[in-house]
Structures are given as structure tokens and as C-alpha cells.
Amino acid sequence: METKERLMLTKEQYGTFFKKNYHTACLVALRYIPDIDRAEDMVQDVFVSLWEKRKELQVKINLKKYLLSAVKNQAINLTQRDKANTIPLSKLMVDLEEDEPEEFAKEELSVKLAEAINELPPACHNIFSLAYQENFTYQQIADELNLSKNTVKTQMGIAYRQLREKLRQSIVVLVQMLQWQ
């Protein structure tokens, strides 16, 4: 059953909604706009537009899905206007209903992963970043940070364990969604 609801959120509620969904919205925008600053500006514009039009908007789906759809549509519009962009329009014209649940779930998992990595203890975070962002081997990390290779292995073990604990539920949901396809 489809219901329509008005966006009658307080400033505090909308602020919470913004904080909770900004990163996911940016990831959606980055699928179409390769420039991170431009994507972030566009996402902020969508949030402002939603706030300004809150009294006349009627949302047929939940507010988060509405936001992500608006971000996707705005990104496609910007891409179409930008002749210098190299992403073919045929790739952009994917129906939101087809890729929505799986793609948004993957993007949310990416956001949660980034947040979990940022919450690692400083030593773990530094070592984990070198391993996965810089593709350093354990020996290269040990040499770079003047540590023993065993210390690097131990810190990586701590990082893996903490990431597994923080992402366990999200990964289960993603795997289940992929199996349903």
C-alpha cells in the first residue's frame, strides 16, 4: 500500500536526517559525478531543496529513498549538461527500481566500512590504511613505521576483528540480498 506523507520535520529532526544520510547520498552522486567537490555541492543543494519544499512535497516512499532518488536524478541532470563528462548517458539511464535496493545497500555498507575504519585505534588505522589504501605488504609497513613484521600482523588482526564485529550485521544483509537475485 502506497501512502503519501508530508515532510513536517523539525529543524533538529532534519539535521539528524542530514547527518545520517549525507555520506550515502554523496556515494550515490559519485556514481555519476566523478568530482567529489561537485558531488558534495550537488547533494547539499538537494538537501536544501528538500527543506525549502517540505510543505508542498508529498513523499510516496520513505524519505531516505526519496532523497537518494532525488540525488540520482539531479546527478544525471548535471551530467547531461556537462559535455566534458566521459560517462556515457546509456550507463546513467538505469531504472532506479532495478538497482535501488542492492546498490544503495552496497553504498551504505561502504559508508559503514569507512566509518568503522575511522574508528580503529590510531596505530591500527595507520597500518590498515597502508595495507589497503597504499597496497603495502606487511614488510613494507614494518619498514615504513620502524616496527617488527609481527607487530604489523598483530595490529592487522586487531583491525580485522574490530571491523568484522562492527560490520557483521551489514554484511549478512548484503549477502542475503545478493543471494535473492
What does this structure look like?
The protein is mainly α and 181 residues long. It folds into 2 domains: 93 residues, Rna Polymerase Sigma Factor, Chain: A; 88 residues, Arc Repressor Mutant, subunit A. It contains 8 helices and 2 strands; from the N terminus they run βααβαααααα. The chain has a two-stranded antiparallel sheet. Helix 1 runs antiparallel to helix 2, helix 1 packs across helix 5 and helix 2 packs across helix 3. The N terminus is likely disordered.
Based on the model shown, name its key terms:
Arc Repressor Mutant, subunit A; 2% strand; 181 residues; 2 domains; mainly alpha
Give the SSE layout:
Blueprint: E1 5-6, H1 11-30, H2 36-52, E2 58-59, H3 63-81, H4 89-92, H5 96-118, H6 122-132, H7 138-145, H8 149-179
Helix pairs in contact: 1-2, 1-3, 1-5, 2-3, 5-8, 6-8, 7-8
Rg result: 20 Å
Instruction: Tell me the CATH topology of the largest domain.
Output: Rna Polymerase Sigma Factor, Chain: A
- Give the proportion of residues in helices: over 70%
Global geometry: elongated
How many strands, which pairing sense, and closed or not: the largest β-sheet? 2 strands, antiparallel
Count of alpha and pi helical runs:
8
What is the chain-wise order of helices and strands?
A: EHHEHHHHHH
Strand content of the residues, in percent? under 5%
Output mean pLDDT.
76
Oligomer: single chain
Give the uncertain stretches in residue-range form.
1-5
* CATH level-four homologous superfamily name of the largest domain: RNA polymerase sigma factor, region 2, helix turn helix motif
Q: Distance N terminus to C terminus?
A: 24 Å
Number of strands: 2
Q: Give the class from helix and strand content and strand pairing.
A: mainly alpha
- Biggest sheet: strand arrangement: 1-2
- Give the domain tally: 2
CATH class of the largest domain: Mainly Alpha
